[in-house]
């Protein structure tokens, strides 16, 4: 019983093995005791009633034993039961059973004389431990103008009827046996349908452990298995996403590290080739080397930010009371200059007075700076960037709106994933795809949220919402 299939079969068939015999016994008991015996008793009572009606017009018969015996002999030939005529005191006047010498003869029960004299009918079933020895008795009083003059007593042994009971039991057995086998067969089939998806799931988990390619499984019908397979498919989708992110990371690293390394190699070769002899040339080469080194340092900082443990973010925040007006002026100034150098219109809309908030000005400035960097990077010359700040009751919203290419709705949830860069029809833009992921983590660390609204061809709007308390 160490497999799910065997346990399922046992749980399905064991109740059948226990319940089916009990059902058979109950069914046989009901058919024999409650149907056949009652029908037999009713039939005997009807016969006794007819005979009682016949004897109501024969007053002399009850005073002469010979006439009574003659009546019994004549009518008993048409009956399967033993026929007896009883006196009002319960003694036998005449009987078709020659061995019956008293009311209790032949295994019959004692006649209730009191009920007989009151004119009450009596139906009795005498059970026996020996099959076929049970007796059904019916006593019907005979009335004449003077009252009860006697009774018709019919006695039917079940011996002749017993073969009918045996056939009934055999029929019930053979009727229930196919149902039992059918239940076992259904249990086998259901066990297969339950075991098949479990085996497939187990095989897929084995492939996962071996590092093979993962494939989503079709969802089975049972709710529990469907939930389990759906969870596994979600895991597969997550692992595939992580694998795609890993490959994208490698590709981005190769590009982002290879480009500055190539520039550094070119500068080194130029200096070794004598370009350093000219002071202006040497100064320009060293400035280029410094720029590329700064790019590499920024790349390393972004990677460190992404892989920092989230549970330490709040501890790493250097929170202090900060006037938003002064802080925004410091953060926006360099990006305004970068936008104007690229020929982009720059606008800032903010109230004359903004509240003071408790933030980490450096980390939150990095988050806003990443949004502004993307706006400058993706907005073409001649476009426009607008920064809109407004405060509500308990929130302050900072919007960065640009006229860049926009982001398709299907990609708007994924752009915040690390290393994800949505395919654009425009020229390649350098970067690791980490800026938005870092911005979201720092905004969330402040208890806020970041949202995007974008329409392809009409630009994008990123909104940072921060609580004032």
UniProtKB/TrEMBL annotation:
<dbReference type="GO" id="GO:0005524">
    <property type="term" value="F:ATP binding"/>
</dbReference>
<keyword id="KW-0597">Phosphoprotein</keyword>
<dbReference type="InterPro" id="IPR003660">
    <property type="entry name" value="HAMP_dom"/>
</dbReference>
<feature type="domain" description="Histidine kinase">
    <location>
        <begin position="252"/>
        <end position="469"/>
    </location>
</feature>
<dbReference type="InterPro" id="IPR004358">
    <property type="entry name" value="Sig_transdc_His_kin-like_C"/>
</dbReference>
<keyword id="KW-0067">ATP-binding</keyword>
<dbReference type="InterPro" id="IPR036097">
    <property type="entry name" value="HisK_dim/P_sf"/>
</dbReference>
<keyword id="KW-0808">Transferase</keyword>
<keyword id="KW-0547">Nucleotide-binding</keyword>
<keyword id="KW-1003">Cell membrane</keyword>
<keyword id="KW-0472">Membrane</keyword>
<dbReference type="InterPro" id="IPR003661">
    <property type="entry name" value="HisK_dim/P_dom"/>
</dbReference>
<dbReference type="Pfam" id="PF00672">
    <property type="entry name" value="HAMP"/>
</dbReference>
<feature type="transmembrane region" description="Helical">
    <location>
        <begin position="12"/>
        <end position="31"/>
    </location>
</feature>
<dbReference type="GO" id="GO:0000155">
    <property type="term" value="F:phosphorelay sensor kinase activity"/>
</dbReference>
<dbReference type="Pfam" id="PF00512">
    <property type="entry name" value="HisKA"/>
</dbReference>
<dbReference type="InterPro" id="IPR003594">
    <property type="entry name" value="HATPase_dom"/>
</dbReference>
<dbReference type="InterPro" id="IPR005467">
    <property type="entry name" value="His_kinase_dom"/>
</dbReference>
<keyword id="KW-1133">Transmembrane helix</keyword>
<dbReference type="InterPro" id="IPR050980">
    <property type="entry name" value="2C_sensor_his_kinase"/>
</dbReference>
<keyword id="KW-0812">Transmembrane</keyword>
<dbReference type="InterPro" id="IPR036890">
    <property type="entry name" value="HATPase_C_sf"/>
</dbReference>
<keyword id="KW-0418">Kinase</keyword>
<feature type="transmembrane region" description="Helical">
    <location>
        <begin position="171"/>
        <end position="194"/>
    </location>
</feature>
<dbReference type="Pfam" id="PF02518">
    <property type="entry name" value="HATPase_c"/>
</dbReference>
<keyword id="KW-0175">Coiled coil</keyword>
<dbReference type="GO" id="GO:0005886">
    <property type="term" value="C:plasma membrane"/>
</dbReference>
<feature type="domain" description="HAMP">
    <location>
        <begin position="192"/>
        <end position="244"/>
    </location>
</feature>
<protein>
    <recommendedName>
        <fullName>histidine kinase</fullName>
        <ecNumber>2.7.13.3</ecNumber>
    </recommendedName>
</protein>
<keyword id="KW-0902">Two-component regulatory system</keyword>
<feature type="coiled-coil region">
    <location>
        <begin position="286"/>
        <end position="320"/>
    </location>
</feature>
């Amino acid at each position: 019983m160490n497999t799910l299939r065997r346990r399922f079969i046992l749980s399905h068939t064991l109740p059948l093995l226990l319940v089916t015999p009990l059902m058979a016994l109950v069914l046989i008991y009901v058919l024999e005791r409650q149907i056949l015996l009652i029908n037999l008793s009713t039939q005997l009572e009807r016969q006794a009633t007819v005979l009682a009606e016949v004897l109501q017009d024969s007053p002399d018969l009850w005073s002469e034993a010979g006439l009574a015996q003659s009546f019994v002999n004549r009518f008993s030939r048409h009956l399967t039961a033993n026929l007896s005529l009883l006196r009002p005191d319960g003694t036998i006047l005449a009987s078709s059973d020659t061995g019956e010498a008293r009311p209790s003869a032949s295994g019959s029960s004692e006649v209730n004389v009191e009920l007989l004299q009151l004119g009450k009918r009596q139906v009795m079933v005498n059970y026996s431990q020996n099959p076929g020895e049970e007796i059904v008795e019916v006593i019907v009083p005979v009335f004449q103008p003077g009252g009860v003059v006697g009774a018709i007593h019919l006695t039917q042994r079940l011996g002749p009827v017993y073969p009918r009971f045996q056939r009934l039991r055999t029929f019930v057995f053979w009727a229930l046996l196919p149902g039992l086998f059918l239940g076992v067969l259904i249990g086998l089939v259901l066990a297969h349908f339950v075991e098949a998806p479990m085996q497939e799931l187990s095989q897929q988990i084995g492939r996962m452990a071996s590092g093979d390619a993962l494939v989503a499984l079709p969802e089975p019908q049972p709710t529990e298995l469907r939930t389990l397979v759906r969870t596994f498919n979600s895991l597969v989708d997550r692992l595939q996403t992580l694998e795609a992110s890993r490959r994208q990371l490698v590709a981005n690293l190769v590009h982002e590290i290879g480009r500055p390394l190539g520039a550094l190699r070119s500068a080194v070769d130029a200096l070794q080739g004598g370009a350093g002899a000219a002071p202006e040339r040497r100064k320009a080469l060293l400035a280029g080397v410094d720029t590329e080194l700064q790019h590499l340092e920024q790349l390393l900082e972004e990677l460190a930010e992404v892989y920092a443990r989230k549970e330490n973010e709040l501890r790493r925040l250097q929170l202090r009371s900060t006037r938003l007006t002064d802080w925004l002026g410091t953060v926006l100034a360099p990006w305004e200059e970068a936008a104007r150098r690229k020929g982009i219109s720059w606008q800032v809309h903010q109230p004359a007075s903004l509240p003071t908030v408790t933030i980490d000005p450096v980390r939150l400035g990095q988050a806003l700076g990443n949004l502004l960097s993307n706006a400058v990077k993706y907005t073409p010359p001649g476009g426009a960037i607008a920064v809109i700040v407004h405060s509500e009751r308990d929130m302050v919203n900072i919007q960065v709106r640009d006229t860049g290419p926009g982001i398709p709705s299907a990609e708007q949830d994924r752009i915040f994933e690390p290393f994800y860069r949505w395919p654009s029809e425009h020229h390649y833009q350098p970067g690791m795809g980490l800026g938005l992921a870092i911005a979201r983590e720092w905004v969330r660390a402040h208890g806020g949220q970041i949202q995007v609204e974008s329409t392809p061809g009409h630009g994008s709007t990123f909104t940072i919402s921060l609580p004032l308390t």
